[in-house]
């Protein structure tokens, strides 16, 4: 009866699984995401904690027995500043935020991002902790002065429930952690001019750390004081664990708000002179890492095109089916985020475009061009991350049969999709079970899945399409301006 809680950017979900890894009870509720002028994106910690309380209480009320543990995962990056009691000292700044766009561009020009990447294997983008903290250090220093910890969503909720200040090693990975030592690289912090704020970074918790509900957390959730709680890994590595990624070279595609492409590796070496982008994420297994390329493109772009064309998300599949591969000549670059792109390259000025449009272009072609461009972005990310084994997929986007076939065709490989969509919560539960010594059969948990095969007859067309995508991207990168 371990309750897995996935605290996403826009939705919080609680799930309980049976011994076969099938969900037997679940609940979800939306979180509020506030968008402001200038690309600012913020969330209210109290409201996010309230979503956790809602879903945990709802699930616990439906279980035939007592809850034995709570396993937390959720969104990463951004900055969730708190005081010693866990109260927010300002609204949380989301990973989607773009207020540090100009700062990031300056760091790129001055070689700061290159230096940090050389030391940690992780790139930086406007919504990462380093850029946000530096921005606040200049514009809101009094906020940092009041804070005791500059952490992330999962550890902010953990502090409310247990009173403990800690951070999972996966969250701490970007951008200052040395993945080999699992300790902060002090020179990387100094390179960003943040040495005087070093005390705000909580030390990473040891692997298999277990915390306990305190009186405040127990009262919030209606659960016993002392109930075991685990916190992490955050949603990207949790999804990899939950989907069944276990062999070096295997990867997972998360088609959600962000398009996260990850590949499991035991190799800690990386091309220090390569493009300073992506993340080198530590996992609960100290001998394994995830090379992550979490692009800013994803289902948010689909929501945008639906709003623009006045259609419902349910209409996407019929529209995709009514346009052919190549979208009758319509092409797109999918960079719709106000904070640009963060993988497999970083450019805060990255912007979307459509091309090849004529009077004969219809709504279906525009939708297909955008969906194909996101699939091309996934291929670009996986090439950078080193995918060589099986590919798994999860996220809201995989619920579209037509779109997941486009991904398979563009990538030229079959895609394994777990039957239960709550893979982030599942990964958190598996991590908690390992930490608590609770036995489980990993093979049985991974067995419930289906395979989407690629269509060989479409591969040649998409090879040409991907070449066109790369050419358009190269040309556009020389024109983007903040």
From TrEMBL:
Any Pfam family matching the protein: FGGY_C
Keyword tags: Carbohydrate metabolism, Kinase, Transferase, Xylose metabolism
GO biological process, one term: D-xylose metabolic process
Domain Carbohydrate kinase FGGY N-terminal: residue ranges: 1-242
UniProt xrefs under Gene3D superfamilies: 3.30.420.40
Coiled coil: none
Residue ranges annotated for the Carbohydrate kinase FGGY C-terminal domain, each copy included: 302-435
MF terms (GO), sorted A to Z: kinase activity
TM annotation in the entry: none
InterPro entries for this protein: ATPase_NBD, Carb_kinase_FGGY, FGGY_C, FGGY_Carb_Kinase, FGGY_N
Family that this chain belongs to: Belongs to the FGGY kinase family.
PANTHER family for the chain: SUGAR KINASE, XYLULOSE KINASE
Protein name: Erythritol kinase
């Amino acid at each position: 009866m371990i309750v897995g809680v996935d605290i996403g950017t826009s939705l919080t979900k609680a799930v309980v699984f049976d011994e076969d890894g099938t969900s037997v009870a679940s609940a979800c509720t939306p979180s509020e995401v506030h968008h402001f002028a200038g690309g600012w994106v913020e969330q209210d910690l109290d409201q996010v904690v309230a979503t956790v309380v809602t879903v945990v209480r709802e699930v616990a009320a439906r279980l035939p027995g007592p809850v034995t543990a709570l396993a937390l995962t959720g969104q990463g990056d951004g900055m969730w500043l708190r005081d010693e009691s866990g109260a927010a000292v300002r609204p949380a700044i989301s990973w989607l935020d773009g207020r540090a766009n100009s700062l990031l561009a300056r760091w790129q020009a001055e070689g700061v991002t290159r230096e940090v990447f050389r030391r940690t294997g992780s790139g930086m983008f406007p919504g990462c902790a380093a850029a946000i903290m530096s921005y606040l250090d200049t514009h809101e220093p009094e906020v940092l002065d009041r804070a005791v910890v500059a952490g992330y969503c999962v550890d902010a909720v953990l502090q409310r429930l247990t009173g403990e200040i800690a951070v999972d090693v996966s969250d701490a990975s970007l951008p200052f952690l040395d993945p080999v030592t699992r300790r902060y690289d002090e020179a990387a912090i100094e390179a960003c001019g943040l040495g005087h704020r070093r005390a705000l970074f909580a030390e990473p918790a040891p692997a298999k750390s277990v915390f306990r509900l305190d009186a405040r957390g127990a009262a919030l959730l209606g659960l016993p004081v002392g109930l075991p709680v685990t916190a992490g890994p955050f949603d990207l590595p949790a999804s990899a664990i939950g989907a069944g990624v276990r062999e070096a070279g295997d990867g997972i595609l998360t088609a959600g708000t962000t398009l996260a492409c990850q590949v499991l590796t035991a190799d800690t070496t990386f091309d220090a002179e390569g493009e300073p982008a992506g993340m080198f994420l530590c996992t609960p297994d100290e001998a394994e890492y995830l090379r992550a390329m979490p692009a800013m493109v994803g289902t948010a772009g689909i929501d945008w095109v639906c709003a623009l064309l006045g259609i419902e998300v349910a209409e996407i599949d019929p529209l995709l089916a009514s346009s052919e591969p190549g979208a009758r000549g319509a092409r797109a670059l999918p960079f719709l985020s106000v904070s640009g792109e963060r993988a497999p390259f970083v450019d805060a000025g990255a912007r979307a475009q459509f091309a090849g449009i004529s009077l004969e272009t219809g709504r279906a072609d525009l939708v297909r061009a955008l969906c194909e461009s996101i699939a091309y972005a996934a291929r670009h990310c996986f090439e950078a991350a080193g995918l060589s084994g099986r590919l798994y997929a999860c996220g809201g986007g995989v619920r579209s049969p037509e779109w997941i076939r486009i991904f398979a065709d563009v990538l030229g490989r079959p895609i394994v999709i777990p039957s239960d969509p709550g893979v982030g919560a599942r990964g958190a539960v598996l991590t908690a079970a390992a930490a608590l010594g609770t036995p489980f059969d990993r093979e049985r948990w991974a067995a419930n899945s289906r395979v989407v095969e690629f269509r060989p007859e479409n591969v040649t067309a998409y090879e040409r399409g991907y070449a066109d995508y790369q050419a358009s991207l190269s040309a556009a990168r020389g024109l983007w301006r903040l």
